[in-house]
Structure formats: C-alpha cells, structure tokens
Amino acid sequence: MESQKVDMFLMSNNKFFESYHLMEIKDLLTKADDSKLTNVQIQQYKDPTTVLIISLIAGSLGIDRFMIGDTGLGIAKLLTCGGLGIWAIIDWFLIMGATKNKNFEKLVIALNY
C-alpha cells in the first residue's frame, strides 16, 4: 500500500489504537495490498472515549463490555452487578485500553493476517 494512504489512515484513526500499536499498524498496512485498503477503511472502530462514558454511566450492568464485544465478561458483570461495584470501578481505568486492543484485533482480522 502507498505510504501516503497509510499515513492518512493513521492520522485519521490514531485515537482508536494504542500508541505502541501504531508502528505495527504502519508496517502491516505498508505490506498489505491496495485491495485490502477498502476492507480496512469500512471497519467500524469503537471510540474509547464513548465506551468510557458508557462505563461511567452503566458500567455495573456490563454494557461497556457488551459494546466492545466481550459478551462473556458482560454477562458476568451484569450478573454480579459489576462485581459488587469493584469490577465496575476497575473498568473505569481499563476499558479504554481494552477498547483500543479490540480495535487493533479487528484491524488485523480485516487484513486477514
């Protein structure tokens, strides 16, 4: 893929990924075919800030975990009322990183690696 397209993708989507993933993403996209660019661009990446706000509002119901695709953890969090509140508070600090990691996994799957 052209360097210009890769840089444009990174500039417009860097908030969805951890900073330490950006160089790896750049390498993966550079090695990928131009035909995979469309597949990567149509992916709907979750906004970590939005998921954090949902976690603050309804974290004890597990909605934040359902949003990022952790269905099993969402059910467990729902049944335990957010781990009696403790798990919900811990997720306030961890959910943005978890969202960014899920976005990275989605990108790698879109590139078929």
TrEMBL record:
Annotated keywords? Membrane, Transmembrane, Transmembrane helix
**Looking at the keywords, is Calcium present?**
no
Principal cellular location given in the protein's record = membrane
Indicate where this protein resides in the cell. Membrane
Which InterPro entries did the record assign? Answer: TM2, TM2D1-3-like
User: What sequence ranges are listed for the domain TM2?
Assistant: 45-93
A Pfam family cross-referenced in the UniProt record is TM2
Membrane-related topology note? Multi-pass membrane protein
Regions crossing the membrane: 51-68, 74-95
Q: Identify the PANTHER family for this entry.
A: BETA-AMYLOID BINDING PROTEIN-RELATED (PTHR21016), TM2 DOMAIN-CONTAINING PROTEIN DDB_G0277895-RELATED (PTHR21016:SF25)
Q: List the protein's name.
A: TM2 domain-containing protein
Q: Which organism is it from?
A: Sphingobacterium kyonggiense
Q: What are the top taxonomic ranks of the organism? A: Bacteria, Pseudomonadati, Bacteroidota, Sphingobacteriia, Sphingobacteriales
